[in-house]
Write a structure and sequence with these properties.
Belongs to the short-chain dehydrogenases/reductases (SDR) family. Pfam families: adh_short_C2. InterPro entries: NAD(P)-bd_dom_sf (IPR036291), Sc_DH/Rdtase_CS (IPR020904), SDR_fam (IPR002347). By secondary structure, the protein is α/β, with parallel strands linked by helices. The chain is built from seven helices and seven strands. It has a seven-stranded parallel beta sheet with strand order 3-2-1-4-5-6-7, sandwiched between helices. The radius of gyration is 18 Å and the shape is globular. The N and C termini lie far apart (39 Å). The mean pLDDT is 97. The structure holds nicotinamide-adenine-dinucleotide (NAD) and magnesium ion (MG).
């Protein structure tokens, strides 16, 4: 039998517990191609069943990690997908474009910098032109750089983190709304950090709390128009973000081990949450944050 997301097994051992080396290091933004051990993006394990047939999606940060797993799953469920990513990530992005096309769907590769307001508008225009419309927006790109103290967070990092995690989300969503008919869905990636911030991630964690708040406010604003807004809050997931200064190096070997499931999650384990919130199955789910975190209690 082929293993896929419908296979019943023990979640504590579904994936091996990884022990990344504290030497695991990449320059920002990090590449899945360089990640050791390799993450599971669902390449061999995600099976589509037509849950997003004919939908048209944007996934920011769709080149790697959680966004890439989501892009692959969306395509296998029948959606066309534009992925947004930084130019340095072309290698990862082209692999995901190939997987979207292998699923028989249209892919658009849109490199650029989300700190640039014009690019935020541009990805929406590109998706609408290529797909003839837009029904799914996943605001997933994010910047996370650990620092021991507040004084170590200089203005460049502070502004970059808020530009990428917050301002881009506002701008892309604003541009997308002009094209999204009733029945569309918006999904924002927040984090367990929104509730239980690490002392080394105060800038990042506060953006994630803001994303939760934005999700709940905008959800009420758009629900009467038939557009549902929700969020996914991952716990510790094995992605390039974590080895490109997302965690203090000395913490990497223990990454995810403190969760009740005893291991870090894989990007492939996040994709079904995004598919659910993007699909019509979640028609009465609005303003919700779906926690996919290995068991951390949340409010
Ligand atoms: P990732 O590095 O694979 O994805 C992050 C992506 O953000 C990058 O691939 C990059 O394309 C994009 N990005 C960053 N800065 C950008 C910029 N200026 N312009 C354009 N794109 C930019 O890592 P990931 O862990 O899959 O992260 C995806 C989301 O999940 C992020 O929002 C992150 O905060 C969130 N998250 C991750 C974890 C985790 O443990 N990995 C936990 C909770 C939340
Ligand atoms: Mg990437």
């Amino acid at each position: 039998m082929t293993t896929d997301q419908y296979t019943f097994d023990d979640p504590t051992t579904r994936y091996p517990s990884i022990t990344p080396s504290s030497n695991e290091d990449q320059p920002e933004p990090g590449l899945d191609a360089q990640l050791g051990p390799q993450a599971d993006l669902g390449e061999l394990t995600y099976r589509g069943t037509g849950r997003l047939a004919g939908r048209r999606a944007i996934v920011t940060g769709g080149d790697s990690g959680i966004g890439a797993a989501t892009a692959i799953a969306f395509a296998r469920e029948g959606a066309d997908v534009l992925i947004s990513y930084l130019p340095e990530e072309e290698e990862d992005a082209q692999r995901i474009v190939g997987l979207i096309e292998d699923a028989g769907r249209k892919a658009v590769a849109a490199p650029g910098d989300l700190r640039d307001p014009a690019y935020c508008q541009d990805i929406v225009t590109q998706a609408v032109e290529a797909f003839g419309g837009l029904d799914i927006l996943v605001n997933n790109a994010g910047k996370q750089v650990a620092q021991e103290s507040l004084e170590d967070i200089d203005d460049d990092q502070l502004i970059d983190t808020f530009d990428t995690n917050i301002l881009a989300m506002f701008r892309i969503t604003r541009a997308a709304l002009a094209h999204m008919p009733a029945g569309s869905t918006i999904i924002n990636t927040t984090s367990v950090q929104a509730y239980t911030p690490s002392p080394t991630l105060v800038d990042y964690a506060s953006t994630k709390a803001a994303i939760n708040n934005f999700t709940k406010g905008l959800a009420q604003q758009l629900a009467p128009k038939g557009i549902r807004v929700n969020a996914v809050a991952p716990g510790p997931i094995w992605t390039p973000l974590q080895v490109s200064d997302g965690q203090p190096k000395e913490d990497l070997p223990e990454f995810g081990k403190g969760m009740p499931l005893g291991r870090a999650g894989q990007p492939a384990e996040l994709a079904p949450a995004y598919v659910f919130l993007a699909s019509a199955e979640s028609s009465y789910v609005v303003g919700e944050t779906l926690n996919v975190n290995g068991g951390a209690p949340t409010p």
